Amino acid sequence: MTAKPLQIGLAGLGTVGTGVYETLCRNHELLEARVQMSFEVKRVAVRDLGRPRDVAIDPALLTDDWRTLVEDPDIDIIIELIGGVTDAYELITAALRAHKPVVTGNKALLAERGGELFRLSAETEAPLYFEASCGGGIPIIQSLTASLICNNVERIAGIINGTSNYILSAMERKGVSYEEALSAARRKGYAEADPSLDVNGRDAAHKALILAMLAYGTPVDPRAIAVYGIERVTPVDFQFAHRLGYTIKLLVVIKHHEGSGKLELRVQPSFVPKEHLLANVNGVFNAIAVRGDIVGETIFYGRGAGKNPTASAVIGDVMLAMRDCRHPEHHSGFHPYTQAPELMPAEETVTPYYVRFLVQDRPGVIAAIAAELAKKGIGISAITSTPHGEEEQADSNDLVLLLHACAWGKLKQALREIGNYDSIDRHPVVFRIENFNES
Amino acid sequence: MTAKPLQIGLAGLGTVGTGVYETLCRNHELLEARVQMSFEVKRVAVRDLGRPRDVAIDPALLTDDWRTLVEDPDIDIIIELIGGVTDAYELITAALRAHKPVVTGNKALLAERGGELFRLSAETEAPLYFEASCGGGIPIIQSLTASLICNNVERIAGIINGTSNYILSAMERKGVSYEEALSAARRKGYAEADPSLDVNGRDAAHKALILAMLAYGTPVDPRAIAVYGIERVTPVDFQFAHRLGYTIKLLVVIKHHEGSGKLELRVQPSFVPKEHLLANVNGVFNAIAVRGDIVGETIFYGRGAGKNPTASAVIGDVMLAMRDCRHPEHHSGFHPYTQAPELMPAEETVTPYYVRFLVQDRPGVIAAIAAELAKKGIGISAITSTPHGEEEQADSNDLVLLLHACAWGKLKQALREIGNYDSIDRHPVVFRIENFNES
Fold it and tell me: How far is the alpha carbon of B410 from chain A, nearest alpha carbon, in Å?
């Protein structure tokens, strides 16, 4: 044990902050025994001192000015859990400039301004830890940066938004609509009042940017990522998916193309083969599959959000910071080490596809679609219509095609041509199919 | 970058040693960039200098005396991959005494003599790293000791022997016998000429002892573990398992009982509900489910053995050792921090069970079995006979019972009584059922 306990400053006492404070108290003895160092929480910054709290905390610890944490020379480590991007940016940069290591779970900030923050961290030799920014309690950051360090990461594919996975799982299990499943998620506290960042894929995209940065060594431009949410997924698509041996998951896919050196980075609801482990990740759970050139395929599974799982990740980082802060020159935080890779435009990315057209029951419709696809050299691997057990509509019908792998740009052109036909819906439903059998 | 490259001594150039050497060469630049330190392999100890090798290595690097590695003052880190327990013990203790950090994957040695080795590591302040000792490329050691450090581990359940999982998966998929599946595993190189340690559960038990040590803070007595292998699993049991909604996996189960403080530690083929992720871990893959009081359920999946996956784990440790070796007093290796917990005798451990009796088709047989179970207070949750699609035998019949949870000692007594009946096989097949829904 070190003689003087390390002093921790905690900024933010919301859901996760409360989980961190409670766990640091409850499992204090265990933590000190395991890490063989002693520590205490010296000060906790909150927005409003007067607000009633459901955690037992000595009011003398509280301050409503996070600057007192950063300016206190006794505080060794800062935990940033205030959220948002403005104050949090100020807090983190002030702490790094004061040479204090920072632990954060702020994925939006890291996705938007990670480049600046890591540069500052390198300049000031104050490490920045962020296990809690992706995958909740799943140790994906530590695994990518330490355990799997010898691997060229070939591909990452993951379910990293618990709210949208809860909604998709409920739609699948109960056959309900997106709107019904969203209401259920709200009632259970798995969706916020404004769930847009979760369901439109932007939260997953923030996390994908962090994973891509870790895998490829440098912050990636957040504007270049192709993002689609789950709002347009319907029970009909789930029925077709099942019939064809798939389920639908909001997937993040990150791939490095060795030939071109380009980085493919996209977030979208995708068809996943039923027998794949990712297809069996349900409810609010997350899972991230990482394929490395040396280790092969690995998958990390766990609770991707919530008070305690996120607190578990934060505290893992605090303990790393405690070990590292005696020797900042060899800290275990992330250092950018390469130039930003070129991003692959969405039009160039290649997968198989599921396409559902609403077509009028007229002669020649299938012929027209097939001819346009053939013109572009796009192969059809399966074709089917109204899903099993569905009533046929009077005049129009769902026509589903599974297409062989082709560039999205090519398919987009073909769909534009097909949309010119009178009897065919201009806006077919398109999902990518991820078979995970790429070489 | 540090001015002088860190010097690595590699002992052992078998399958994994070759993978480590090749990867340290192939991904050398990537590793140095990521860890921001430079390193080189200074010396490689082999058993036989004259043996032809399928790895390109400068003969000047080779020695047939591992002592030259330990005694070389320039060598900073030793990798032990010579295997066995005698020479490896000598090598590791000599290296620790020379204050050199050691990276090893030697599970048998750690399971048998981990206590001594960790005491010596503490005395000499030379850390011992062993990610490769369990789960191949899966970063389970690092996750348990660092990322999940704030958790009281409530339960670990895992598939941690690739050979036996390959055999069980093949039996399930192809409906073949244990012997046929074992031959197939041998042909594919997934089973050694003498596969006994893999199929009898002892290899999994070694790894379980390491996981228990990490979770509960101290080496555990290897004699106290209850171990059963997969040799008695039959296609008939797979048929019943499917019919009842299960599959069969060789599971390691480690549980801490808060009330009694006792540690439950067992290895046996078990029924796993088909919808559980562990039921979907097939072939040579491993998966380890860890439930912590803070993080909840997590699962780690990947290749549990083989040249490159194991090399990935070894090199992850080497990079940790490189960071740590400048500051051994705060190394990220494991320190025992508590007293050995009392082990729960197998007779006291409680699960539901699957029991298959071979019975003669006589009146009163079911009555007799049911009466003996009732006498001991053991409830029957389901009863069924010959599996679907099987021919009935002339005079005898499979009778399968699913039993509610009870202590193994109680069931053993009941089975002894039942064995006294003439028309009932004295040696029924018994599998535990793991439902993973314990509170």
Answer: 36
